[in-house]
Write a structure and sequence with these properties.
This protein is of the alpha/beta class and 474 residues long. The chain has three domains: 83 residues, no CATH class; 254 residues, Rossmann fold, CATH 3.40.50; 83 residues, Arc Repressor Mutant, subunit A (Orthogonal Bundle). The protein has 15 helices and 17 strands. Strand 2 and strand 3 form a beta hairpin. The longest helix is centred in the last third of the chain and has 22 residues. It comes from Bradyrhizobium yuanmingense.
């Protein structure tokens, strides 16, 4: 890609005009019928448009990059009589630092030197494990080119209060792409609207909720927000009281801090998690952030803006980095981060972390009733010469092996429901009893691997003498 040509004099007449007009008046653009306030865009010709904010001048501008050169301007004309203009500097989210923006592109060294600067900044102000420091640094890079991918992982800091979660969120989040800071005290509506308008990185503190309605709304954002093309629909009525649902785009990087886990196991699998509080906090970390913190973070955001201009059209998903030992979901969320990481050692550490997370997920699945049912079912399939396994035999085995663990009666109806609705196995009625056919054996063995159930193949075929005549419906 052509090198960016950086002029020693960045001020153009348009920029000077904007700085002299901090109130946001936009003279000279009213003749355009279609004026669109813009935060960022990638135009059809490849031009990248990004909003920048100069707090010392109370001015917002648009930084554009095309054909290896960048410029700053008060507006960008696009074909069809459209004109892109920056959000006003008086926007509450911008002037109150709820959303952080760069002020201009700034030259940086090599990509590795930029990563080293990010690592040093995070290490200076937050106490994280060495591996997670590296992961967080590359996640910052990923956030600046996230729109080149269709799937994303999330970062999470999990631990009790006083273990440095909020400081780590502030430190990492201040470097991310258009970070939007929110907390459990925020109402849900502005989160939807801000994510939809700015399309940046959600930094969410205290993401544990007491009330199910709040939790369900935030979980919608987290469940839909790691995959492109999955907006959240919310009811909107127009002035004519016509039903007109609005689609809120919530796709983007997210970093959250929680004290516990989410009940939704599918959501849990989307996080790369750092457990905080496992060791004493380092003594060299300042108790309060110094006044220079914001300037240091903005300087790095300026360099990261140039990184986006240089790399946005070069970054792409590398399917060759998929790990065959990992489940599809983990490969799906890890591939974008692995595609950004250039250090082979860190790629190996990321794979090891993903494998550890997978083992934890399998161990948790192994504690579920589904795993117990699978364990009995596969034992019966391997020890019988019949073409079916009666559900009643599975029920009797569960009662014999795990009965004391349950405080309710274990019935054929319950076991049949687990087989059909939780494990999605075929059952049908044969001679008055419900059975699982041997044709399901391949699916059962695959489920055993997923739930961490060992398959012992040296058991001799036997016939279980159970209550196979029970025909209770389920």
């Amino acid at each position: 890609m052509a090198q960016l040509r950086l002029s020693p004099r960045w001020k153009s007449s348009a920029i000077v005009s904007a700085m002299n007009d901090p109130g946001g008046s936009r003279k000279g653009i009213t003749e355009h019928r279609h004026v669109s306030p813009t935060v960022s865009d990638v135009l059809e010709d490849g031009t990248i448009v990004e909003l920048v904010y100069r707090p010392e001048h109370r001015a917002t501008l648009l930084a554009t990059s095309v054909a290896g050169r960048w410029t700053l301007a008060t507006h960008v004309d696009v074909p069809g009589g459209h004109q892109l203009v920056p959000f006003s500097p008086n926007n509450n989210l911008i002037k109150n630092d709820v959303v952080l923006l760069p002020s201009e592109p700034r030259i940086h060294g090599t990509e590795q030197e930029l990563v080293s600067e990010i690592v040093a900044f995070i290490h200076r102000y937050a106490d994280l494990s060495p591996t997670f420091e590296q992961v967080a640094s590359y996640y910052v890079l990923l956030s600046w080119v996230y729109d080149a991918f269709n799937d994303l992982p999330y970062l999470r800091l999990r631990g009790d209060f006083g273990t440095g979660k909020t400081r780590s969120l502030l430190t990492i989040g201040s470097l991310c792409y258009k970070p939007f800071f929110a907390s459990g005290a925020s109402t849900v509506s502005p989160i939807f609207h801000t994510l939809n308008a700015f399309r940046g990185t959600l930094i969410f503190d205290e993401a544990d909720f007491r009330f199910s309605d709040e939790r369900s709304e935030i979980v919608k954002i987290l469940n839909n927000g790691n995959m492109r093309g999955m907006p959240v629909l919310r009811t909107v009525m127009n002035r004519q009281r016509e039903f007109n649902p609005q689609a809120f785009h919530v796709f983007g990087p997210k970093i959250v801090a929680t004290r516990g886990r989410y009940e939704d196991r599918a959501l849990e699998s989307r996080f790369i998690t750092e457990e905080t509080g496992a060791r004493p906090l380092r003594n060299d970390i300042p108790i309060n952030l110094p006044p220079t913190f914001k300037d240091e973070a903005r300087e790095l955001r300026n360099k990261l803006l140039l990184y986006r201009f240089r790399r946005r059209h070069e970054i792409e998903l590398n399917p060759a980095l998929a790990d065959p030992k990992l489940e599809p979901r983990l490969n799906q969320i890890m591939l974008p981060l692995l595609s950004v990481v250039s250090d082979p050692r860190l790629r190996s550490e990321l794979r090891n972390a993903a494998e550890h997370a997978q083992n934890s997920i399998i161990a948790e699945r192994g504690l579920l009733m589904e795993a117990q049912v699978l364990e009995l079912l596969v034992d019966l399939m391997l020890s019988t010469s019949r073409q079916v396994v009666p559900v009643a035999d599975i029920t009797m085995g569960i009662i014999d092996r795990y009965g004391p663990e349950y405080d309710r009666p274990i019935s054929n109806r319950w076991i049949g429901s687990v087989l059909r609705t939780k494990l999605n196995l075929l059952t049908y009625k044969s001679h008055g009893v419900y059975v699982v056919p041997m044709t399901e054996r391949g699916k059962v063995e695959m489920l055993c691997r997923r739930y961490g159930v060992n398959i012992v193949t040296d058991a001799p075929p036997t016939e279980r003498k159970g209550d196979v005549g029970t025909s209770e419906k389920f």
